[in-house]
Amino acid sequence: MNKFKILIYSLISLIFIIASSLMILLLVKEWNNPKVFWSVFTINWIITISFSIFILNSKRKPAVKSCWLAVIVIFQILGVLFFTIFGLTPFKLKNEKDKNNQVKIIQKYIKQDQAKKYFEHQKINALDFLSVKNDIVFIRDNTLLYKETIQLLSNAKKTIHIQTYILRKGLFFNSIYDVLVKKIQEGVKVKIIYDWVGSFLMFPKRKMRKLKKLGAEIAIFNPKGINMFKGATNFRSHKKLIIVDNKIGIYGSSNIADDYLSINPATNFWRDINFIIKGELVNSLNASFFIDWYNYTNKQRHDVNKKELTRILSKHNTKNILPCQLIQSSPDSQQKNIENKILELIFKAKNKIKIITPYLFLTDAITQSLLTASERGVKIEILLPGKKDNKNFILDLNRQTCFQLSDSRNIHIYEYNGFVHSKLFLIDDDLVYTGTFNLDNRSMWINFENSILIFSKNLNKELTMYFNEQLKNSIFIDKEFLRKRSTLLVKTKLLFLNLFYPLL
To answer: Which residue in 152, 126, 179 sits closest to 246, CA to CA?
Structure first.
């Protein structure tokens, strides 16, 4: 977004702050003066109606429009002020053309056209990266994730690239920090991208400063500044990956915090899914890392050339044929690639779909596609958390969606006796779809996310076994279960949650 637009939107926000303050002060001082009261009342409603008409004619989703209209109707001029600050700003990059050119250069380098023959039955988006020769190993538990992460970093010879949504003080970060210090001293080049909103609480500021002083390059995704108080702040990077020497990586749903290792007594029931990746897919993930580095962080550049882009990629010797499609989604793209891929996979499923997700706040399109699939005989199993994380409302919202799906005899929903943070779709016997996305409005429309579609019967079988193992420690959710937990307090809470959660 260019500086002129930022200035204009900031001035509009400032005007409404002053106007709303003056109106409130005027009402307090002259509350018994009918002329003042009705003048303020009339101005307030002219502004409210004008913004309501603007929102109704905008390109937002219907649920988002409804939420903003409710905010303005309930809070009047204060709601308009809130919309001006957080809803008016479009997220449009002035270097979007540069980003698309970077993607094309990388796609040509990794010979994407040659790989397309393996993806004849899949829709391929302009920003997708295709790869064929890969090895993928499933990391079954969180303790093993810790061991594999430390070992991977310890074996680095040239480069370490880390991207995470949450970076938090604790054993996990401290262990990674100790290895990074040693590796920097050995001459390994370290780059880290973190999201400042996700990492706001318990951010290891002192140790990150020391890493930077030693020579690590630290990039902040969508950094603070004038945008901190604008709608663009709502657009966050939810990506998580570690890549070493552009030869091997760890990818999945875990952030860098102790919760994800199940060592925190409050979250020792946590479950996540991660993978060790070798082969051409590492090039795709590394390319995604650098596109974010050059276009969305405080390291933003507009002069990246072809030589520089291709130098970050490597030739891989993996001979195993395992086709993978890296799918990315972002708020600056009109195509919501991850939601579209989910709809495509549900539509193409013939026999069964297994889903693991922490948040089941489905879009209308995904809800309808699941119901339609179940009507044509596809068996659908969904595994949800039975305990909450730091979001107290998650179980109530999940169960509200369960009500919508529970009428179908082919949809079976379970709650795990713990918290599942995994993101997984298993389609029939041969497709695995995983990544950083949740099944909520934020992941589908607001966040920067990525995901991987894997064509593998063996991996599908292994993850199906894992899914079935988790069901042994889960309970089946039926309408009777949901009715018992739908108390008056819960229903009242949902009235307010339904009003605001599409905006979050």
So the answer is: 152
In 3-state terms, what secondary structure has residue 433?
Answer: strand
> Is the separation of the CB atoms in 417 and 477 below 8 Å?
no
AA identity, residue 124 = I
Region for 133 from its dihedrals, namely left if φ exceeds 0, alpha if ψ lies in -120 to 50, beta otherwise: beta
Q: What residue has token string 């709601």?
A: 79
Condensed to tens digits (0 to 9), the pLDDT of residues 172-225 reads 999 999 999 999 999 999 999 999 999 988 899 999 999 999 999 999 998 866
Instruction: Please provide the DSSP assignment of 5-70 as one string.
Output: HHHHHHHHHHHHHHHHHHHHHHHHHTTT-HHHHHHHHHHHHHHHHHHHHHHHTSSS-HHHHHHHHH
CA dist 415 and 401 (Å) reads 13
Cβ-Cβ contacts under 8 Å for 334 (sequence gap 6 or more): none
- The reported pLDDT for the residue numbered 146 is 95
Amino acid of residue 318: T
In tens, the pLDDT along 345-376 reads: 999 999 999 999 999 999 889 999 999 999 99
Its sign, for the CA torsion 384, 389, 391, 392, is positive
- Tell the residue number behind the tokens 């948040």, with chain if given: 359
As a whole number of angstroms, the distance between CA 63 and CA 55 comes to 12
Q: How far apart are CA 236 and CA 165, in angstroms?
A: 8
Query: What amino acid occupies position 199?
Result: S
**How do strand 321-329 and strand 449-455 relate by DSSP bridges?**
antiparallel
Contact call for residues 349 and 383 (beta carbons, < 8 A): no
Give the helix/strand (H/E) hosting 339: helix 337-348
Percent of all residues in the chain with a pLDDT value above 90, rounded to a whole number: 50
* CA 316/CA 306 separation, integer angstroms: 20
User: What's the rounded Cα separation, in Å, for the pair 353 and 351?
Assistant: 7
Please, are residues 373 and 346 in contact by the beta-carbon 8 Å criterion? Answer: yes
- Given the structure tokens 């409804």, which residue do they identify? 66
Cβ burial, residue 249 (10 Å; 0-12/13-18/19+)? buried
Enumerate residues 6+ apart whose C-beta is below 8 A from 54.
none
Q: Which two tokens stand for residue 382?
A: 């969904």
- Closest by CA to 446, choosing from 235, 165, 253, is 235
What end-to-end distance do the CA atoms of the chain give, in Å? Answer: 21
Contact (Cβ atoms closer than 8 angstroms) between residue 297 and residue 154: no
The reported pLDDT for the residue numbered 484 is 87
SS3 288: helix
Beta strands at 379-385 and 411-416: parallel, antiparallel or unpaired: parallel
